[in-house]
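Attaching the record inline, Q. Sequence:
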Amino acid sequence: MEISKIGRTRLRRLFCTGLLSLCITTRALAEESFYRVRICGKVGFIDKQGRLVVQPAFDFARRFQDGLAPVKVGEKWGYIDHQGKFVIKPQYEETRMFTSGIAPVRVGDRWGFINHKNEFVIPPQFEAARSFAEPGDGMGNTARVLLNGRWHLIDEKGHDILPRDFDDMGGPVEEGVIPVMERGLWGYINRKGEYVLKPQFQGAEAFTSGVAAVKRNGHWCFINHSGEVVIPCLYDDTHEMFEDTAAVKLGSEWGYINKLGKVVIEFKFKDGQKFLDGLSEVAAETGSAVIDHDGNYVWAPGAECSR
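Structure, as predicted:
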């Protein structure tokens, strides 16, 4: 069937529009893949190739998300874009990462949520608040907040989504469940507030990559959604598993294991973070660094002030 001239023009427009969208998305993802490094006592950011893309000018910083990174200068927090320019000037006592255009900030001793225009969408009222997260169950984003000494789970309008509150909460909804603590023990509930894994752990993290870190008898291990231990309880500390890899601590040193529990990066770091887009931030004896999945340095420690 022959396509008319008008049809071909429309197809070209659609193709170009789609290509532009792809380019914008690809660029946005690249900009999110910035990693923190500390140079001469200040924090800056590198890209995946190890190039310094945001000069070290901040006392503290959190990761980029939604195109912005929370940074601290002196005693105040604000937000920068991927060029290191302030989009929201330092003015808050503390800030956390944006998700879907919303971020928690602290004014005095109370937390609320702002949008990218620095307008409050949920007024300051909480004693503590964490960033929203995508739940992985096809439903709305959620965030945990502390109100009157109890932890609640809210939606993006600030409404409670659970029928009750808890002593502690280890994360928002991820992979359909939430880690909660009652009477000193941790378990997992669903959005209805029903236990899917009864309280039995000394500690619990959110589910990621199909597994969750839990603490038993003083050591951390990983379980699946059925509560079965899939990686033995051997570790003194751990972070959530991302990209099928988790940072774990033995004694005073951090290394990395895969979903089978096999050590894939040796224990030699003072701290290790989760992998994002193929790289992880670590702390070595001689300074901050960024490594790939093979443990190779993209940003090596020890020469920060000479760069």
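DSSP finds one helix and 30 strands in the chain. Residues 185 and 199 are 5 Å apart (CA to CA).

More tomorrow.
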